[in-house]
Write a structure and sequence with these properties.
The chain is about 40% helix and about 20% strand. It has helices at about 10-15, 60-80, 90-105, 105-125, 145-155, 170-180, 185-205, 205-220, 225-230, 300-305, 320, 330-350, 390-410, 425-430, and strands at about 5, 25-30, 35-40, 45-50, 130, 135, 235-240, 245-250, 255, 260, 275-280, 280-285, 310-315, 370-375, 380-385, 420-425, 455-465, 465-475. Strand 15 (about 380-385), helix 13 (about 390-410) and strand 16 (about 420-425) form a beta-alpha-beta unit.
Length: about 475
C-alpha cells in the first residue's frame, strides 16, 4: 500500500481472487458499467491519497500507520487461509481482521455520503409537510410539550413572560395557535433557509465522509467494541459457493435474522451471522450463540446485493454481470429508509403529546363534564361544558378561572346575553352538536387545512325565546 496510490482493500487480500493464470489480474464489476473490467490488482480498490497526503515534516501519516498494521496482519491472514474446510478459527484474530477491513474500506466513506444525501431527502420531505408519504399535521387540540417549552423559553429569553398577566402555559397555547394560522407563510420562508442548508450539506458530504472515516481509523484501526462483539461468535471455515466466492467492496456481509446486509448496516446486537471470503473456495463464517448453521451457498448473490460501488471476482460470469444494473440500489434504499424513519421519529417525538392526555385515550362514550359557576353578586351564572374530555382536574381549574374573567368583563360590558362555554377535542362535532333552538340549513365546517386551524367560534342560540351567544372552543 505504500505510496500515494492507497488501497482500501489491501493488495495482499485481493491476490487469492486473481484470475486463474494471472497473478496480478482481477475482474472488477463496477456500478454503472455494463460489463466487468479486467484490471491489475495494483490499480484495483485504490485511490490517490485516499487516507492521507505525504507528510512534509516526516510525521507518520494515517497511510503510514495502516501500512505498518498490514505488515502485522498479513501473517495472520495467511494462517487463516491455510485452514481446512470445517476447521475452527481463533475468534479474536478473525474478529480483528473483519473489523479492520470494513472500517478502512471505501464502502464506509460512500455510505456516509449516501446518509448525507438521504438526510437531504428527509429534510425536504419534512419541509414539504410530508414524512413517509404522510401529511404532517400539527396537533389541533393541544400544544406539543416540546413546542410549548420552546415558546416559553423564547418568551423568557426576551423577558416578556413577566409582562404578561397570564400563565406561561396560556401564553404558549395562544402563541401556538397563532403560529398555526400563519404556518404556510412561515414554512415558505423556512424552505428557503433549508434549501441553502441542504445544498451545503451535499457540497460538503465528501469532506464529511473523509473526516468521519479518518477520525475512526486514527482512533483505532480495529475499533474494540465491534472486535469484542465479533469475538463472541463461533467462527468456522466453510466452503465457498460453486465457481468461487466474490469479494464485495464491504468485504464482509452480515445476517441480522431477517436479511443479509453489509457490516455497517447491522448493529452489534443484530448480528446472527457474518461471512468474510478468505479465498474463492473458503469463507470465514461467524455464528452467534444458539445458531447452529447458516447456508452460504448463495453467497455471491448476497455479497453483490450488499455491495455499494463494486465487487471483485476471479471469473467473468453471466450471473455476476446481471447484478451490475442494480449494484448499490439495495444499500441506498436501506439508508434512505433509515434516514426518513429517523426523521419521522424525530418529528413525531417532537410533536408528541404528554402521556395519558391524548385524544385517543378518551373514551368515545365519555360523559360530558360540566359546571355552573358564577359570582352571584353580579346576578348571572356561566355554564361551562367539556366534551370528550376526561381530565376533571384540568376542567375544574378552567371552570374556576373563567367566572372571575367574565365578572371583570361584566363591570364594563353587558354579559347577560352570554350563554356559556363549550370546550371540546372534536371541535367540528361540538360546533354541530349545540342545540341552537332553531333550524339550521347547513353543517358548520371550521378551518382545518393542515397549516391553519380554527380554535373558537361564537354561536347564536335561542334560549327561552331570547337570542344569546354560546362560545365553542377547541382544546
Amino acid at each position: 500500500m505504500a505510496g500515494r496510490k492507497q488501497h482500501f482493500i489491501p493488495q495482499h487480500f485481493q491476490k487469492p481472487f486473481a484470475i486463474k493464470g494471472y497473478k496480478e489480474k482481477i475482474w472488477l464489476y463496477r456500478k454503472d458499467k455494463p460489463n466487468p473490467i479486467q484490471t491489475s490488482i495494483s490499480n484495483t480498490a485504490a485511490q490517490r491519497d485516499f487516507y492521507s497526503k505525504p507528510s512534509k515534516e516526516n510525521i507518520p501519516t494515517l497511510d503510514d500507520l495502516i501500512t505498518r498494521y498490514e505488515q502485522f496482519l498479513h501473517p495472520k491472514v495467511d494462517k487463516l487461509r491455510r485452514l481446512e474446510i470445517g476447521d475452527d478459527i481463533p475468534a479474536a484474530e478473525v474478529a480483528e481482521l473483519v473489523t479492520h477491513l470494513a472500517i478502512r474500506s471505501s464502502y464506509m466513506r460512500e455510505m456516509v455520503k449516501d446518509v448525507a444525501s438521504s438526510m437531504t431527502e428527509a429534510i425536504h420531505a419534512v419541509m414539504s409537510g410530508k414524512i413517509n408519504g404522510q401529511k404532517i399535521n400539527f396537533p389541533k387540540h393541544h400544544v406539543p410539550p416540546a413546542i410549548e417549552n420552546l415558546i416559553i423559553k423564547e418568551f423568557e429569553k426576551k423577558k416578556l413572560i413577566e409582562q404578561i398577566p397570564v400563565s406561561n402555559q396560556t401564553v404558549a397555547k395562544l402563541t401556538y395557535f397563532v403560529l398555526r394560522e400563519v404556518a404556510d407563510e412561515l414554512l415558505t420562508d423556512a424552505r428557503g433557509m433549508f434549501d441553502y442548508f441542504v445544498e451545503e450539506l451535499n457540497n460538503k458530504s465528501a469532506s464529511i465522509s473523509y473526516n468521519a472515516q479518518t477520525t475512526v481509523l486514527t482512533d483505532s484501526l480495529a475499533p474494540e467494541t465491534r472486535v469484542k462483539r465479533l469475538s463472541e461468535l463461533k467462527w468456522t471455515v466453510v466452503e465457498g459457493p460453486d465457481g468461487g466466492a466474490i469479494l464485495p467492496d464491504c468485504t464482509s456481509v452480515v445476517f441480522d435474522g431477517e436479511k443479509w446486509t453489509s457490516f455497517f448496516l447491522a448493529g452489534n446486537e443484530e448480528i446472527v451471522a457474518i461471512a468474510l471470503p478468505l479465498t474463492p473456495d473458503r469463507i470465514a463464517l461467524g455464528l452467534a450463540v444458539g445458531v447452529s448453521k447458516i447456508d452460504v451457498a448463495d453467497f455471491n448473490t448476497i455479497a453483490a446485493h450488499s455491495s455499494h460501488t463494486f465487487f471483485l471476482s476471479s471469473s467473468c460470469k453471466p450471473e455476476l454481470k446481471q447484478a451490475l444494473p442494480k449494484l448499490g440500489r439495495k444499500v441506498r434504499s436501506q439508508l434512505s429508509e433509515m434516514s426518513v424513519s429517523a426523521m419521522a421519529e424525530t418529528v413525531e417525538g417532537f410533536l408528541a403529546r404528554e402521556p395519558d392526555s391524548t385524544p385517543s385515550d378518551v373514551d368515545q362514550d365519555a360523559a360530558k363534564i360540566s359546571w355552573t359557576s358564577g359570582d352571584q353578586t353580579n346576578l348571572f351564572s356561566i355554564p361551562i361544558t367539556f366534551l370528550d374530555f376526561k381530565d376533571e382536574i384540568f376542567c375544574k381549574e378552567v371552570a374556576d378561572i373563567l367566572p372571575s374573567i367574565i365578572t371583570s368583563f361584566a363591570k364594563h360590558l353587558p354579559v347577560s346575553g352570554f350563554a356559556g362555554f363549550v370546550f371540546a377535542h372534536d371541535y367540528k362535532a361540538a360546533l354541530n352538536s349545540i342545540e341552537r333552538g332553531f333550524e339550521t340549513s347547513s353543517e358548520i365546517t371550521p378551518i382545518e387545512d393542515g397549516s391553519r386551524i380554527g380554535v373558537g367560534m361564537p354561536l347564536t342560540i335561542l334560549e327561552d325565546g331570547e337570542a344569546k351567544t354560546k362560545a365553542v372552543l377547541r382544546i
